[in-house]
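Lab meeting, item 3. Inverse folding demo.
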């Protein structure tokens, strides 16, 4: 796939005025493009030793699960408040629009494990920074973060300074 931008739909003023929403459902609908996106994310992770892919709800599930399966790793969902059934650890953070609380199961990640976080889009980096803090709170390590899209003007890389961040498409 030469240019993922051809299959990403931009939706102005969604979900609120002023946001240029990058809609990846048009990527998922394209079997060649979707497969190529997972393969390209996998390539970004070559040479990194890790145990678990964490995907943030909900589009992180879409990119994170095929990545975990093809790379032979575990998948752990990071979910919005109140969705996970067992004991959780949680963190509240600020989004490009609004505020959110993210949770993972307390026993999903063990001390010493190496974690990759995969999501559709890096905006402010708030979501992933919160997940990094959750991971580190149990003594595990974030060894990489991989995004399909990165919105450069929101400086997510600054929020995630010190981590190994990669993305496929930048705006
Ligand atoms: P952030 O924590 O600010 O990096 O972004 C959290 C999540 O919000 C991203 O993973 C996206 O799923 C979603 N998001 C934020 N901004 C946009 C946008 N402009 N277009 C599409 N999704 C977005």
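The presenter then showed the designed sequence:
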């Amino acid at each position: 796939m030469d240019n993922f931008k051809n299959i990403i739909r931009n939706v102005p003023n969604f979900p609120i005025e002023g946001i240029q929403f990058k809609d990846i459902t048009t990527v998922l609908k394209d079997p060649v493009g979707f497969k190529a996106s997972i393969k390209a994310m996998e390539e970004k992770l070559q040479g990194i030793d890790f145990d678990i892919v964490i995907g943030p709800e909900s589009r992180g599930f879409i990119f994170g699960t095929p990545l975990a399966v093809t790379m032979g790793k575990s998948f752990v969902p990071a979910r919005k408040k109140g969705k996970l059934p067992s004991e959780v650890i949680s963190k509240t953070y600020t989004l490009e629009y609004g505020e959110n609380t993210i949770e993972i199961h307390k026993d999903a990640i063990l001390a010493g494990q190496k974690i990759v976080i995969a999501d559709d889009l890096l905006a402010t980096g708030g979501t992933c920074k919160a997940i990094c803090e959750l991971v580190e709170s149990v003594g595990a390590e974030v060894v990489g973060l991989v995004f399909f899209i990165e919105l450069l003007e929101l400086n997510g890389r600054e929020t995630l300074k010190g981590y190994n961040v990669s993305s496929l498409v930048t705006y």
